[in-house]
């Protein structure tokens, strides 16, 4: 009985610790280390930030415009996929 309790506590601690280290991955996206992959998800807005992420792949979504403050919560972002691939009509895209 004590072993089961300790096992549950250990699993909970490891889950919380891993979640803190890896950050929360935005809905409809997958995270791989410092890379956030949101390709082909029909996103119309920039996903919620992942502060440790250095790469963001938004290829083939439906993002038509990006507000000036869209990446304020992405302090370590150094690489962004070609967002022009998001809109079928490139003339309508506004950054």
General description of the model:
The chain contains one helix and four strands. With 95 residues, it is an alpha/beta fold. The protein has a four-stranded mixed beta sheet, with no helix packed on it. Strand 1 (30-32) and strand 2 form a beta hairpin. The chain is elongated, with a radius of gyration of 17 Å. Mean pLDDT is 78; it is low at 14-22 and 90-95.
User: Roughly how many Å apart are the termini?
Assistant: 59 Å
Rounded to an integer in angstroms, the radius of gyration calculated over CA atoms is: 17 Å
> What structural class results from the helix and strand content?
alpha/beta
Order of helices and strands: HEEEE
**Number of continuous helical runs:** 1
At the third CATH level, what is the topology name?
Leucine-rich repeat, LRR (right-handed beta-alpha superhelix)
Question: Which descriptor suits the 3D outline?
Answer: elongated
- The CATH C-level class name: Alpha Beta
Helix content: 10-25%
Mean pLDDT: 78
What can be said about the biggest beta sheet? 4 strands, mixed
The named CATH superfamily: Ribonuclease Inhibitor
Low-confidence stretches: 14-22, 90-95
Estimated share of beta-strand residues: 5-15%
Number of strands: 4
How many structural units, i.e. domains? 1
Assign the CATH architecture: Alpha-Beta Horseshoe
Q: What's the arrangement of strands in the largest beta sheet?
A: 1-2-3-4
């Amino acid at each position: 009985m004590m072993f089961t309790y300790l096992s549950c506590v250990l699993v909970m601690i490891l889950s919380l610790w891993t979640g803190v280290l890896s950050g929360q991955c935005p809905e409809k996206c997958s995270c791989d280390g410092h890379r956030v992959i949101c390709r082909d998800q029909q996103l119309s807005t920039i996903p919620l930030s992942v502060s440790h992420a250095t790469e963001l792949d938004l290829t083939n979504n439906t993002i038509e415009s990006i507000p000036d403050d869209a990446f304020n919560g992405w302090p370590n972002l150094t690489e962004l996929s070609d967002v022009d691939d998001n809109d079928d009509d490139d003339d309508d895209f506004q950054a």
